[in-house]
Amino acid sequence: MIQVAVLGYGTVGSGVVEVIERNRQEITRKSGEEIHVKYILDLRDFPGDPYENKVVHDVEQILNDPQIQIVCETMGGLKPAYDFTKRALLSGKSVCTSNKELVAAHGSELMRIAGENKCNYLFEASVGGGIPIIRPMKESLTAEKIEAVTGILNGTTNYILSKMEKEGAAFEDVLRQAQEKGYAEKNPQADVEGHDACRKIAILSSLMCGKYVNYQDIYTEGITGITAEDFVYAHACGKTIKLLALSRTFQREGREEGLYAMVAPFMISRSNPLFMVDDVFNAICVHSDRMGESMYYGKGAGKLPTASAVVSDVADCARHAGKALMSSWDSQEASLADIDQISRRFFVRVSEDKESRALQTFESVSVIEADVAGEFAFITDSMTEEDFRKKADEVGIISRIRVEE
Ligand code: HSE
């Protein structure tokens, strides 16, 4: 029997206990050993909860118990999760987490400590909620050179954008619904400003290149500037708007120049496989050199999908007890390319009096006819981010959204 402790009895932590208790037979069959939750760490008491007798308030009880082999860290945030994780790993206890913030900030160090102490630091649930994406990138695509990852990596913002588009719902109302459903972060600014997706694409980028990609180097823009009018234009040209997180190797004159990563709202076409990904669903398109495109899809947030991913790591740790798996990336920091030199098309809105100025400056554009008064809107030809910014400043635009076919 493998004894487990769960740190944090919130949305994901309570899901982890529920999944382990409800799917015991299935999990035992796949882990080779029965998994048993011995402790739940939380500051609060949970009178009436079926597992209230497992709740403890002092982490020392867990860290000093030699029976505990695996710790599920579902507290979120850096403090005290970083300290608890480090101490668990130093005492040879594997840690499975959904904490993307901690993985993105200290993953390299925590994996190294795990390796030195013959245990594991696994984080399948940190990206894409219930979608298996870390293990496929680490193991199933071992033979592939991954050249691009493009994903919808935040359930809350995808839920908000879908409801704004389909129901014309107001931003604040939909955000509240996402919070009620347990999708949003404690501070939902992390979702709507793109920071959560930024941590997740940093993790996928690190897996992609085998080096540490610092999330602070990733250009990040959220969805707070997206309006109902933007969706009117998107419909008029057969597109939709999604918050995309991307990481791509780019080439110039046939030579690989490096890797760039970014998070921003994009207008995408109907032909894009991410077009149909709605509500809390996430999806990740991976382009690799031998296989080409592969896509991973499922619920990207919420109690049970995320908990299920944590428990899949628990089973992995149980199968590899006493053995450290290979680190997902080393601690050397990758240097990311500046997005200024990346070329793409842009959707632009200007006030109607700037039509001729905009046409003169941007030259060749595709005009979008839509039912929005007092404006002129168009999609530019492909140009670098830097060129676009100069031209946009020259004209004085209302707003712009990047375009991805
Ligand atoms: N707040 C996150 C989201 C939770 O909405 O995707 C899952 O990481």
Explain what this protein looks like in three dimensions:
This protein has helices at residues 11-22, 24-31, 59-63, 81-90, 100-116, 134-140, 155-167, 171-180, 189-192, 195-209, 228-236, 303-319, 355-362, 385-395; strands at residues 2-7, 35-41, 55-56, 68-73, 94-97, 121-122, 146-152, 219-220, 239-252, 255-269, 281-288, 292-299, 343-351, 365-367, 375-380, 383-384, 399-404. The protein is α/β, with parallel strands linked by helices and 405 residues long. It has three domains: 2-129 and 303-319, 3-Layer(aba) Sandwich (Rossmann fold), CATH 3.40.50.720; 140-299, Dihydrodipicolinate Reductase, domain 2, CATH 3.30.360; 339-404, Alpha-Beta Plaits. Strands 7, 8, 9, 10, 11, 12, 13, 14, 15, 16 and 17 form an eleven-stranded mixed β-sheet that branches. A six-stranded parallel β-sheet has the order 3-2-1-4-5-6, sandwiched between helices. It is elongated, with a radius of gyration of 23 Å. The model has no long low-confidence stretch (mean pLDDT 96). L-homoserine (HSE) binds at residues 129, 154-156, 183-185, 191, 196, 300-301.
Mean pLDDT: 96
Count of the separate structural domains: 3
Instruction: Label the CATH architecture of the largest domain.
Output: 2-Layer Sandwich
The CATH topology of the largest domain: Dihydrodipicolinate Reductase, domain 2
Q: How many DSSP-defined strands?
A: 17
State the helical fraction: 25-40%
